[in-house]
Design brief:
heterodimer; A: 139 residues; mainly alpha; 0% strand; B: 286 residues; mainly beta; two-stranded antiparallel ribbon; 16 strands; globular
């Protein structure tokens, strides 16, 4: 009985892993239309956020969204080339704190939830954005 | 009457927490819960995280209450924990262990209290970011009120200091594309039943190195399921002290409040076997 249970759990883990690993993140996000929807949601959420919205007062929204679409496409294996500033350059002079970075994470999660992205896809995208933290904060 | 803190104190304190909402800080759930020994962690096991959600610079104070009911015993614990700059944590815990009616002759106090004063220092790494997992060292000074009972059972003393080292990491998008928290701690201890039955024993006064482990999977940012295992020393002769384990569900609706419900298996306590039951824990922060 215990063996059966373990076998069932193992096969569950195996299937879950293979199904998710087979899906390119870019496709899981819904390809170009999905990424566009995601970026619209994220930029709106950032702009309206009480704590980080002020950082976007002078931002050219169209330019910002175009670069963010490229970047998300690039890091999700969608094959795009990111043509914007480096992360250090883009956040230079802002001196973002760790708390503000966390506000961005929270806002991104809210935006993705509102836009209907599943938790697993949210986690995968955030896992790929997380390594950039060092290039974003305290610049 | 500080010797026997009432659960009511915690219940009175906790609802205040959301009014003093910390509006910014770390991501929620990254402060863990207040453990039975007041340090931030899971239910039974301290983690390398700092209580609450302070970042640099910042101070955060957390209050927690837990209640454990197994076959023949109850354990209530109340903890206060403060952290500075996501670096250093001080905690104060008060536990009350109660033996169920009928197990002891009339006239003997069925309650044992213990005070735990803790300090924890984050020494390296980060819970989520960078190459290294978060690491911390901690000390816990424990004072058990059970000098007579513990002495009669063979314990050498009723207060002692324990040291531990914890490594904790949140893995983003692990199996099932879920975020997983893993913790491993090593503790040097001479405690009998975490100190409730004193420390050391006649004929063996060495510290034991014990391992304590937690694993949790976040279904989503609000709900996690997990398990813990806490190794314990051999204990007093004839009492059959066991390792402790639990399986829990945690609800973290925001940065200020969390609730965990667990099934705990405390094995044999004071020669009474099959001590499994329910554990409930609440943590709120300012």
């Amino acid at each position: 009985m215990r063996f059966m249970l373990m076998a069932a759990m193992a096969s569950l883990v195996f299937t879950a892993c293979t199904t998710t690993r087979e899906t390119r993140l870019y496709d899981a996000l819904g390809g170009a239309p999905g990424v566009a929807k995601l970026v619209d949601a994220i930029s709106a959420e950032y702009r309206d956020d009480a704590r980080i919205g002020f950082l976007f007062e002078d931002t050219d929204q169209d330019y910002f969204k175009a670069r963010l679409r490229e970047q998300i496409c690039a890091i999700s294996d969608g094959g795009c080339e990111y043509t914007g500033l480096s992360m250090e350059e883009a956040h230079s002079g802002m001196d973002l704190s760790e708390a503000q970075f966390n506000d961005f994470v929270d806002a991104s999660r809210r935006a993705m939830t509102k836009a209907g992205f599943a938790i697993g896809v949210q986690n995968r995208l955030l896992a790929r954005l997380a390594p950039m933290r060092g290039e974003v904060i305290h610049q | 009457m500080l010797r026997q803190p009432s659960p009511l104190i915690a219940l009175l304190l906790l609802p205040i927490a959301p009014l003093h909402a910390a509006d910014e800080g770390r991501l929620k759930a990254t402060g863990g819960l207040v453990t039975i020994e007041a340090a931030a962690g899971g239910g039974l096991v301290p983690w390398a995280v700092m209580a609450g959600s302070s970042t640099r610079p910042g101070v955060d104070v957390v209050a927690g209450f837990s209640a454990t009911q197994v076959a023949d015993f109850r354990l209530a614990s109340l903890g206060l924990s403060a952290s500075w700059n996501d670096r250093f944590e001080l905690s104060l815990g008060r536990q009350q262990f109660t033996v169920d009616r009928g197990l002891l002759p009339a006239g003997i106090d069925r309650r044992i209290g213990q005070t735990v004063l803790g300090a924890k220092l984050r020494i390296a790494g980060d819970l989520i970011y960078g190459d290294l997992p978060q690491m911390a060292i901690g000390l816990q000074y424990k004072h058990s009120d059970s000098d007579v009972l513990a002495g009669a059972l063979g314990a050498r003393r009723n207060d002692d200091v324990e040291a531990y080292f914890s490594v904790t990491r949140l893995f983003l998008a692990g199996p099932f594309d879920r975020n997983w928290l893993l913790n491993g701690s090593v503790r040097a201890t001479r405690a009998n039943e975490t100190g409730l039955l004193g420390f050391g024993r006649i004929g063996d006064d060495d510290h034991a190195l014990v391992g304590e482990f937690s694993a949790a999977m976040f279904f989503n940012p609000e709900f996690a399921i997990g398990a813990e295992y806490r190794q314990k020393p051999d204990g007093l002769p004839g009492l059959g002290e066991s390792d402790w384990r639990d399986v829990f569900v945690a609800w973290v609706p925001n940065r200020r409040f969390s609730l965990a419900v667990a099934w705990v298996d405390l094995g044999t306590i004071a020669a009474r076997p099959d001590q499994d039951g329910v554990f409930v824990s609440m943590t709120g922060n300012w």
